[in-house]
Write a structure and sequence with these properties.
The complex is a heterodimer of chains A (242) and B (598). Chain A is α/β, with parallel strands linked by helices and 242 residues long. Chain A contains seven helices and six strands. In chain A, strands 2-3-1-4-5-6 form a six-stranded mixed sheet, with helices on both faces. In chain A, helix 3 (97-113) links the parallel strand 4 and strand 5 (119-125). The N and C termini of chain A lie far apart (58 Å). In chain A, 45% of the residues are buried. Chain B starts with 43 loop residues before the first helix and ends with a helix. Classes of the chains: A alpha/beta (242), B alpha+beta (598). At the A-B interface, helix 1, strand 2, helix 6 and helix 7 of A face helix 1, helix 3, helix 16, strand 12 and helix 19 of B.
């Protein structure tokens, strides 16, 4: 903002979505980008790249979104997507406790390996499967026993991860936290807006530091990055006798 | 289950899988610039397998971080002229690197292609006849687009028997395809299409046609409906079982340890018992060193195929031949390899023989199912193992080819424009062709399964193309243009864009061996699209899609002919008229294709 001359400066922000398979990463993006929802969406293969603008009062953020596939076999490709990302959305399914565990792994990996200062949002998706009013983010606050074992109770509440549990974890780790429904659109734009607001302006303008806007610079940097695989790759090539 | 069991001996696989050839000579760079002799792709397997040291500078330098995927990166076969700009062949002007050519693998527009590809992955050309006189594949090709006779592989004696029996009573005129090539090619041809014919001849007495046409296809319309899940109390088990049994086609994939991997119909609870039975049967014969390849129960044919640690079973009531079913199973295997690569698959089972492969394959069930369903519906492309091209004029294709060529970037391996599941244009390195089986997998992923399109945006997909190299991944940039049009080009009426089924979309596929090259390829996509819009090619493609295939009466007015399939062997392409009006329904189409297969 400091050096802004145009009425509304616009900047690109690289964002990556991570999380277990079938938690609704693509659905969140689809809701954010196209305001659309598809029931029974087929799994993402590899990764999809999408862009969407987010208008803030003082500036425009253009999100460059990497929507990654959640299957385990794609996990090794993730660094390629979160490297140089200024923000990450780590998604879990609030009806599936294991997906939160996976989300915590992703958070840890991001904190360890991604650019320092990356803005991470923890998102519990599928809020529509619970029967609480969608905006009561602490309605279940008293349900402190976390992964309520009593699963679907009489009124069809499929929630298995309590808001309190996830929220306290998010606070401990310094993450943004939201519960969303991609199906109903609940809280989806809010997540992205919150991320946009949380991106420090210094990382947007001026010094093309950790997240060079469109990634070109970033990528060359990646390539020059050390090549730990070299020897192993050669080995595998030699072993190839097909 | 097994009433009349008859054992055919070790199956002669008909595939596009790469067989190692014994030819160790590095591929000779084609010297003629006209592209007629594209250098041997038969060497592909060798190229791929050899480290081919000095030819791969860019590869080893562009390694990213270390992860599993990286290990699997296909050791890129030498692409000298692309990588080493100073190679003699690139002497032609700097702007036009001859390394990639617009001469599509399958020679979409080329009239004089001399390359023949055989299903066993070999190719014949003139460029190096002398060096290739080895047993695996003899390549001879004549100026007249000559045919050559791949020498038979050292397989069981059975194949010999098969062919002789064939020779005795399969009149060549049964061919529905390329008559000339048939006559020329002799009976030892290994093309899947030929196999289909031949196995038909061997498995079926012509006087004893199975009556599957009349009554048995009655419920075919329900073939692709989901089977209900068995509810927890098992109350509906019987009903579900009936549904399951009413399917005409089943595919089962299991590990040799008996773990279920995939089943087209029915959930795990339902099929587990059958998986156990089939595993027992297969293992029994394996133990006796006399592998089971197929058996018949009533009108149902069971075909078994074993690939490494995996068992594949096709169960068909559609009267398909063993060879057809076997080719289908092979395609499913290719799909699995495409997801995992061969080394990963092997490693998984070497380390833990009772690996549950469903984890590693998670998310690809839809790909397997859409592939399986395309076989069940009857896919000319699978039947002939050839591909179909969009019908446009040669000059127009030429313009498109050149557009792609001009826009190509350093990292590009293959570039394709595909419209409605039909190929429009391909650019590729001179010495690599694209295998029909690989294209089948790609087209299935993009146009049948819909996982890619549904997401919108652009995609970056690691994929192993087993025909190219089953040991590593390539990275595929995919962009669908109609979706693109919505935002940018508003001159296309929104309604057509929405009405167009997803099979009618135009896709640009750019394949690279470098997993970091997304943005480079994305830029290339933008350039290509801009140029295609500018030179009018985009409209030509759209018009061609809208027109669809011509009907038989358009081709020959007043003809009685309802449908035909024509395959050009030299180009690995086929063409056919529109299915409508005679074969517009699913059932009619299936019947039509069954006839074709006969």
């Amino acid at each position: 903002m400091a050096e802004a001359t145009a009425p509304k400066p616009s900047s690109s922000v690289k964002l990556v979505l991570l999380g277990e398979a079938a938690v609704g990463k693509s659905s969140l993006v689809l809701r954010f980008v196209n305001n659309d929802f598809q029931e029974n969406k087929e799994p993402t293969i590899g990764a999809a790249f999408l862009t969407q603008k987010c208008n803030l009062p003082t500036r425009t953020i253009k999100f460059e979104i990497w929507d990654t596939a959640g299957q385990e076999r794609f996990a090794s490709l993730a660094p390629m997507y979160y490297r140089n990302a200024q923000s990450a959305l780590v998604v879990y399914d609030l009806t599936k406790p294991t997906s939160l565990i996976k989300a915590k792994h992703w958070v840890a990996e991001l904190q360890r390996q991604a650019s320092p200062g990356i803005v991470i949002a923890l998102v519990g998706n599928k809020l529509d499967l619970t029967n609480e009013p969608s905006n009561s983010s602490n309605a279940l606050g008293e349900d402190g026993d976390g992964e309520a074992a009593d699963g679907e109770d009489a009124d069809g509440d499929a929630r298995k991860v309590s808001t309190a549990e996830a929220k306290s974890y998010a606070e401990d780790e310094g993450l943004l936290f939201f519960e969303t429904s991609a199906k109903l659109g609940t809280n989806v734009t809010e997540v992205f807006t919150a991320i946009a607001n949380a991106i420090p302006e210094t990382s947007l303008k001026g010094a093309r530091g950790p997240g060079a806007a469109s990634g070109t610079a970033g990528r060359t940097e990646e390539q020059s990055r050390v090549n730990l695989t070299g020897p192993r790759d050669n080995a595998s090539k030699e072993g190839c006798a097909c | 289950m097994g009433t009349s069991t008859n054992f055919s001996s070790p199956a002669s696989h008909s595939h596009d899988r790469v067989h190692a050839t014994t030819d160790q000579t590095p591929a000779v760079q084609a010297t003629s610039e006209n592209g007629t002799s594209d250098s041997m792709t038969g060497d592909r397997s060798n190229d791929a397998s050899q480290p081919a040291g000095d030819n791969q500078p860019s590869i080893s330098s562009s390694k990213g971080d270390h992860d599993r995927e990286d290990d699997q990166r296909p050791p890129l076969p030498p692409r000298p002229s692309l990588l080493q700009a100073d190679l003699p062949t690139t002497s032609s002007a700097g702007t036009k690197r001859p390394a990639l050519q617009a001469r599509p693998t399958t020679a979409i527009s080329s009239v004089d292609i001399q390359t023949l590809s055989f299903p066993d992955g070999t190719r014949g050309t003139f460029s190096t006849p002398a060096t290739r006189s080895v047993s695996e594949s003899v390549s001879i090709s004549g100026a007249s687009g000559g045919q050559s006779t791949p020498s038979r592989k050292g397989r069981g004696g059975s194949e010999f028997d098969d062919t002789t029996s064939l020779m005795s009573y399969a009149p060549t005129l049964r061919a529905n395809g390329d008559l000339a090539s048939l006559l020329d090619d002799g009976l030892s041809s290994q093309s899947p299409a030929w196999k289909l014919l031949s196995s038909q001849a061997e498995s079926m007495n012509p006087f004893e046609k199975v009556g599957y046409e009349d009554l048995s296809l009655l419920n075919f319309d329900h073939e692709f409906e989901e089977i209900d899940a068995v509810d927890q109390k098992g109350g509906n088990e019987e009903e579900v079982l009936l549904q399951w049994k009413s399917k005409f086609k089943h595919y089962l994939i299991l590990s040799s340890a008996g773990k279920p991997i995939y089943s087209r119909h029915g959930d795990q609870n339902l099929i587990n018992g059958y998986i156990g039975i089939i595993q027992t049967i297969i293992s029994f014969f394996q133990g006796a060193k006399d592998p089971l390849t197929g058996f018949t129960a009533g009108k149902t044919r069971f075909v078994v195929s074993t690939d490494g640690p995996l068992y594949f079973v096709a169960i068909s009531k559609l009267g398909e031949s063993d060879a057809q079913l076997r080719a289908q199973l092979e395609a499913l295997y290719m799909q699995i390899l495409s997801t995992l690569t061969l080394p990963t698959l092997t490693q998984l089972f070497t380390n833990r023989p009772n690996t549950d492969l469903r984890g590693p394959l998670e998310g690809t069930e839809t790909l397997l199912s859409s592939l399986a369903d395309s076989f069940t519906r009857g896919s000319p492309s699978a039947l002939l193992s050839a591909l179909e091209c969009l019908k446009i004029r040669k000059s127009q294709r030429h313009v498109i080819n050149n557009t792609l060529l001009k826009a190509r970037t350093e990292k590009l391996l293959y570039g394709l424009i595909v419209a409605g599941g039909r190929l429009v244009s391909v650019v590729r390195p001179k010495r690599h062709s694209l295998h029909p089986s690989d294209l089948q997998l790609i087209f299935n992923m993009l146009f049948e399964a819909g996982s890619v399109q549904a997401g919108g945006g652009e995609n970056w997909i690691p994929v192993c193309l087993p025909g190219f190299n089953n040991r590593g991944y390539l990275y595929m940039y995919v962009s669908f243009l109609n979706a693109f049009d919505d935002g940018v080009n508003s001159d296309e009426p929104a309604s057509t864009a929405h009405n167009a089924s997803r099979g009618d979309e135009i896709a640009i596929l750019l394949i690279s061996a470098d997993k970091e090259s997304f943005f480079e390829l994305k830029q290339m996509r933008d350039d290509v699209v801009k140029q295609l819009e500018k030179n009018g090619s985009m409209d030509i493609i759209k018009t061609a899609i809208r027109q669809g295939r011509p009907s038989t009466t358009d081709i020959v007015s007043g003809t009685q002919l309802k449908h035909f399939l024509y395959k050009s062997r030299a180009n690995v392409q086929f063409t056919m008229p529109s299915f409508s009006p005679h074969f517009s329904s699913l059932l009619a189409r299936r019947r039509g294709l069954t006839k074709h297969a006969d």
